[in-house]
Write a structure and sequence with these properties.
By secondary structure, the chain is of the alpha/beta class. The protein has helices at 42-51, 65-73, 97-106, 120-130, 142-159, 171-182, 233-240, 245-265, 283-297, and strands at residues 15-17, 23-25, 30-36, 55-57, 81-85, 111-117, 162-165, 191-198, 209-212, 270-277, 301-306. The protein has 9 helices and 11 strands. It has a 5-stranded parallel β-sheet, sandwiched between helices.
Length: 312
């Protein structure tokens, strides 16, 4: 192991020694840092990566992340992908995360941050169901602990490469999302999630871009279309035969291609495009399907999620 520098972070070794004594270049492992709100599904996300063959370390103090990467680099390729779970259970260690991330960036370690998010209501229900206190609530209420944690994690959430809102997801749906992002043998340049939603159910908190399709007539008010959803041909034809619908799809696709090119230049690998209408059943679903098809045709690996379809 290399000597520690003054800030306590170990340098990442990039070389090993062969049997003949010659230095050989070591492959630095790929790194994913899993963090987010307590109760939002960090353990499930970590277990999913473990099932995909990642070497997973739970509740690792941030100051030790560079050391873990160094050990992986010295494993002669046996540990090519490392996932570490970092959360507020680390208490005083958590303040060292920013320092460790800067250290990894200086050593050109490929790393991504996955942030698990959830609404206050969902988190309270989860803590109450297991009858456990929030790690930061102290003598206060669960909501006090959640508020303190949000404040602590605010900057990290802003730096995350992938934000997953688990408010309305069960364990299987969260695993499906992780599989969609990490199961591929080769990492694509950019992965997109196109999510339809209903404004009356609230904005998706993990959206990078939001599209409002309420400028088009609502098929809900057409009696023969009301029972169907935007995946049905009749509804899709109705939506895209409206004035401005096709033009909007064409021009927004071009805009997304410009944005995607910028994301690639900035090293951002994931984007969530949220497409909304009133109830998340007709216009947003039809548009999401069309938009996802356009992005896929342009070479962007795309997943479609219909968050609110079927809720009415």
């Amino acid at each position: 192991m290399s000597e520690h520098d003054g800030d306590g972070a170990a340098e990442v070794s990039t070389a090993t020694t062969t049997e003949s004594g010659e230095a050989a270049e070591a492959a630095i492992p790929e790194l994913v840092i899993i963090s987010g709100m307590s109760g939002a599904g960090r353990s499930t996300a970590a277990k999913c990566l473990e099932d995909l063959g990642w070497f997973v370390v739970d509740n690792l103090p941030p100051a030790l992340i560079p050391t873990m990467v160094e050990l992986g680099a010295r494993s002669q390729g046996n540990v090519a992908r490392i996932a570490v779970v970092v959360d507020v259970r680390g208490r005083r260690f958590f303040d060292n995360l920013r320092e460790s991330l800067a250290d990894l960036d200086a050593k050109q370690v490929t790393r991504r941050i996955v942030f698990l998010e959830s609404s206050d209501d969902a988190l309270v229900r989860r803590f109450e169901s297991v009858r456990r206190p929030h790690p930061l609530q102290g003598d206060g209420r669960i909501v006090d602990g959640i508020a303190a944690e949000r404040d602590l994690l605010r900057e990290l959430r802003g730096d995350a490469d992938l934000v997953i809102d688990t408010s309305s997801l069960n364990v299987h749906e969260l695993r499906a999302k992780m599989d969609a992002q990490f199961a591929g043998e080769e990492e694509p340049e950019l992965r997109a999630t196109v999510m339809s939603f209903g404004f009356k159910y609230g904005l998706p908190v993990d959206a990078d871009l939001v599209v409002d399709m309420r400028f088009l007539p609502n098929p809900h008010w057409v009696p023969e279309l009301r029972p169907f959803n935007g995946r049905n041909e009749e509804v899709s034809n109705y939506v895209f035969n409206q004035p401005g619908a096709k033009e909007f799809l064409d021009q927004y696709t071009e805009l997304l291609q410009l944005i995607a090119a910028g994301y690639r230049r900035e090293g951002k690998r994931y984007v969530t495009v949220a497409v909304g209408c009133t109830g998340g059943k007709h216009r947003s679903v039809a548009t999401s399907e069309k938009l996802a098809a356009r992005l896929s045709a342009a070479g962007v690996e795309t997943v479609v999620v219909h968050r609110d379809m079927g809720r009415e």
